[in-house]
Specification:
691 residues; alpha/beta; six-stranded parallel sheet; binds adenosine-5'-diphosphate; binds magnesium ion; ATP binding
Length: 691
């Protein structure tokens, strides 16, 4: 039976409506039965037909309908992975990559890392000879293009979670569109949880410039998988609440008191508030002798064992409470959720390079801020409650706020990110005209110019905006943020590459410290044992040294409030970075105790993040040299309250103020040494915003 295609001339896009079809069955195991019950199964034939006949297929379907776990398997069953070819499925989030890959391996009854594997940065669980279905982050697939520009080993690439519009997803979509012109046999599947599909289809539509008429049809088809979510009753707060964390905690407790069994999913913003909520709920439940609550955190960087708890079925008579970032919004499906508590917030990247000093919210430095989610996100969150039976969603904001103030859609990350890494990747792939690149959503020219300027100052781009050789190519090759890569390269000159590679590894993980659940004082005391007067980066070196001297002991970590899993990860990343360094001909050398060398190398990478303490500041107010933004040292830094006159920082987090995380003191003369072009003007003028 041929599927029915509906042509929608208006948007130049084809719509497709599938009539249900199912394949013949024989002797299914219960796993097979489970697979067949998923909504996407009815569309199996239709999906395979479209992939066969179309260069691009766009699939829209409710979270949990089986897009991510099933479609790659259908493709494999239909032979797309034969003849040495592979099927790729990308995800914006690392944790989602791991979780879906292990689920699919389980469904296929194979060992993870063999036929089904995954790759995330610094973790490759694939086998060159065996792996046929590969899950990976979109960032990793972008990196693979550096060695294999046409991604020739893949027959089908499924770009999943496209509605998230992550920076790497958008870059990837732009590049895949280019690759398609060179590889007509390549098939793309773009899958999404929301009907942002039309824009995507328009982006991939080539109707305007039709090519030679051979091979698959160029116009993308849209297939909508009808979900079978149950209805969800929505509750709003009557008046705005001052503290969403407290409100979330008390909502969970009253659901547990008053509502029938069923798991609870709470959306908060990040590790800090999630850990705090886990602790508060656990304490409250203990003190009021409430039985039967299993409280679990869910955020990226969660150890493997904790991830497994999230997915394991809730024991009888118990109620699971999962406190999550927006990773549970669409990337992961949790069975058994009946109640959702939505704070209305998430952590979002924010960047505004605005050259205009009157612009209200200039953040020349990229910032991670807690910001309101969009209506589209709020609806997704609500939907998570209707998975197994009618559910309830408690929104911790007013109905009026939802209707009148919440933005309808989120802004693509491309338009609110620092583009330094993006530009360097495109340059490394030989795309010179960045401003003219065909983006799914164009970034602001200002952001691109700022990125070019930073890369020029880093010595990565030359006067013609081409990658410098070898520095530019080396920075692009190292799978780290360009500023960190530059710091690693510069360490050679200062004879401290061993130390700086350790620092680079630590900056790649969330934190070396064990989350201070209710033990802030002990944690602070432990930190003092390692604290270095120079700042956090040198402190990390002390922690790493202690870890090595203890023989990588978990006991030692426990005693010192150091996160053992994080330190093991640091050791692994460090080994990989050393290997990359050796390949690039970087001399590995230790400076022993010359910490000035280390600080100079850090400055060579992070000069753009330099700040000066305000001369008469009593509360530790700093201003960035470049844009006079007001920033403070984060309380978790060893330099908190020490307030050296000049510092560079690694990143900014915003809560009530903008806080610098990972801070090191520097000598201002190093800035002009490291980046004369960037700084000479600013340093001569005491008030750079007036220049
Ligand atoms: P989609 O990508 O459309 O959101 P998925 O393919 O991720 O849907 O999930 C389909 C179904 O597979 C889920 O509803 C759930 O029942 C099951 N599933 C997915 N991941 C897991 C997992 N890690 N553990 C157990 N079940 C899972
Ligand atoms: Mg999915």
């Amino acid at each position: 039976e041929k599927p029915r295609i509906i042509d929608d001339e208006e948007g130049g896009v084809l719509f497709y409506s599938a009539s249900a079809s199912s394949s013949s069955g024989y002797g299914f195991s219960s796993m097979e039965k489970q697979r067949q019950r998923l909504p996407v199964f009815k569309y199996r034939t239709a999906i395979l037909y479209l992939v066969e006949t179309r260069a691009t297929t766009i699939i829209v379907g409710e979270t949990g309908s089986g897009k991510t776990t099933q479609i790659p398997q259908y493709l494999k069953e239909a032979g797309w992975a034969e003849g040495g070819r592979m099927i790729a499925c990308t995800q914006p989030r690392r944790l989602a990559v791991q979780a879906v890959a292990s689920r699919v391996a389980e469904e296929m009854g194979v060992k993870l890392g063999e036929e089904v594997g995954y790759t995330i940065r610094f973790e490759d669980v694939t086998n060159n000879d065996l792996t046929r279905v590969k899950f990976l982050t979109d960032g990793v697939l972008l990196r693979e293009m550096m060695d294999d520009p046409l991604l020739s080993k893949y027959s089908v690439i499924m770009v999943d979670e496209a509605h998230e519009r992550s920076l790497s997803t958008d870059i990837l979509l732009g590049l895949l569109k280019k690759i398609q012109r060179r590889r007509p046999e390549l098939r793309l599947i773009i899958s999404s949880a929301t009907i942002e599909a039309k824009t995507m289809a328009a982006f991939f539509s080539t109707r305007r410039h039709r090519g030679p008429d051979n091979g698959p049809k160029k116009e993308p088809a849209i297939l909508s998988v009808e979900g079978r979510g149950f209805s969800v009753q929505i509750f709003y707060v009557e008046a705005p609440i001052p503290d969403y964390l407290r409100a979330a905690v008390s909502t969970v407790l009253s659901i547990h008191d008053q509502e029938p069994m069923g798991d609870i999913l709470v959306f908060l913003t990040g590790q800090d508030d999630i850990d705090a909520a886990v602790q508060l709920i656990t304490e409250e439940a203990q003190s009021s002798r409430k039985q039967g609550l299993i409280v679990l955190p869910l955020y990226s960087g969660l150890p493997r064992a904790d991830q497994d708890l999230i997915f394991s079925p809730t024991p009888r008579g118990k109620r699971k409470v999962v406190i999550s970032t927006n990773i549970a919004e669409t990337s992961l499906t949790l069975e058994g959720i009946v109640y959702v508590v939505d704070s209305g917030f998430s952590k979002q990247r924010f960047y505004n390079p605005g050259f205009d000093e009157h612009q209200s919210e200039i953040t020349d430095i990229e910032n991670l801020i807690v910001a309101p989610v969009s209506k589209a996100s709020a609806r997704q969150r609500t939907g998570r409650a209707g998975r197994i039976r009618p559910g309830k969603c408690y929104r911790l904001y007013t109905e009026e706020y939802f209707v009148k103030e919440m933005p309808a859609e989120g802004i693509p990350e491309m338009q609110r990110s620092n583009l330094v890494s993006c530009v360097i990747q495109l340059k490394a792939l030989g795309i010179d005209n960045i401003l003219g690149f065909d983006w799914p959503a164009s970034p602001s020219p200002e952001a691109l110019i700022r990125a070019l300027e930073v890369l020029y100052s880093l010595g990565v781009l030359d006067d013609d905006a081409k990658l410098t050789s070898p520095a530019g190519f080396q920075v692009a090759e190292i799978p780290l943020d360009p500023m960190i890569s530059k710091m690693v390269l510069a360490s050679v000159e200062f004879g401290c590459s061993e130390e700086v590679i350790t620092i680079a590894a630590v900056l790649s993980i969330q934190s070396v410290w064990f989350p201070g659940r209710g033990v802030q004082k002990e944690l602070d005391e432990a930190k003092l044992r390692f604290a270095a007067a120079e700042g956090d980066h040198v402190t990390f070196l002390n922690v790493y040294k202690g870890f090595l001297e203890s023989g990588k002991s978990s006991n030692w970590c426990h005693k010192n409030f150091v996160n053992y899993h994080a330190m093991k990860k640091v050791t692994e990343i460090r080994l990989q970075l050393r290997r990359i360094a050796q390949r690039l001909g970087i001399v590995l050398k230790s400076c022993e105790s010359d910490m000035q060398a280390v600080r100079k190398a850090i400055t060579a990478g992070f000069f753009a993040n330099a700040c000066r303490l305000e001369p008469f500041s009593h509360n530790g107010l700093y201003k960035t040299i470049r844009s006079s933004q007001e920033v403070y040292i984060h309380p978790s830094s060893v330099l908190f309250r020490v307030n050296p006159k000049w510092v560079v920082f690694h990143s900014i987090v915003s809560t009530d103020r903008q806080y610098m995380r990972n801070v090191i003191s520097i000598d201002p003369s190093w800035l002009t040494e490291a980046a004369p072009h960037f700084y000479q003007r600013q340093l001569l003028n005491p008030n750079p915003s007036q220049v």
